[in-house]
Amino acid sequence: MTKIGLFYGSSTGNTEIVADIISEEFDKVAPGLVKVFDIGRVEVEKLLDYDCLVIGCPTWNIGQLQDDWDIAYARLDDLDFTGKKVAIFGVGDQFGYPDNFCDAIGILGTKFEEQGAELLGFTPADEYEITYSLGVEDGVFLGLALDEDNQSTLTPGRVAEWVALLAVEFQLALPV
After folding, report:
1. Domains of the chain
2. First CA to last CA distance, the chain
3. How far is CA 110 from CA 5, 50, 95, in A?
4. How confident is the model at residue 173 (pLDDT cuts 50, 70, 90)?
5. Torsion angle in degrees (nearest 10) through CA of 42, 50, 52, 87
6. Residue 12 DSSP SS3
7. Over 80: is that where the pLDDT of 176 sits?
8. Which helix (H) or strand (E) is 29 found in, with range?
9. Contact present, 92 and 121 (Cβ < 8 Å)
10. Cα separation values, 95 from 27, 78, 103, 149, Å
11. Which of the residue ranges 58-67, 80-89, 153-162 would you say has the lowest mean pLDDT?
């Protein structure tokens, strides 16, 4: 069975909590399928060990990557993600930052695509009150956008739907 590497960066703990929720949801699909890593504690080359990746990054300040992903970002230029399937989730505040809510999804998504990855796990953007995001193209987020500041009660349902989508898009051979 395909193994999935989930790599997140978290400064306040919100993205780490969401990473755990995603891992638990995947465990309902197939226990032990996901291995979780804090990108600040592993070498960026560890990403290459997995054909399917789930990437988690909050957007900081005005459209910036979280510190650990900011450090890893330039090092991604040295890696070839051809043949890798990548799904990105972002955490942000749509009311405090409606002009760059979950920009990290777009910043990292563009970088992974430039390095050969196939992006998966797109979700509708119309459920959010935003004016602009680098994470949105053609009305969809290039991953899963979550607002833990204002809509944390919606996170479990959004994650469950996203993981079900990823199980199909990652073409997981699930037990019958």
Report:
1. 4-169 (3.40.50.360)
2. 13
3. 19, 19, 24
4. low
5. 20
6. coil
7. no
8. helix 14-29
9. no
10. 32, 36, 14, 9
11. 58-67
C-alpha distances (whole Å) from 72 to each of 34, 69, 109, 120 are 21, 5, 14, 21
3-state SS assignment for residue 22: helix
> Which SS3 state, helix, strand or coil, does residue 104 take?
helix
| DSSP-derived secondary structure letter, 43 | -
Q: Considering only CA atoms, which of 165, 129, 55, 12 is closest in space to residue 157?
A: 165
Q: Closest Cα partner for 109 from 83, 141, 68, 152?
A: 141
C-alpha torsion angle, residues 136, 140, 143, 149 (rounded to 10):
70
Over the stretch 33-66, which tens digit does the pLDDT of each residue have? 999 999 999 999 999 999 999 999 999 988 899 9
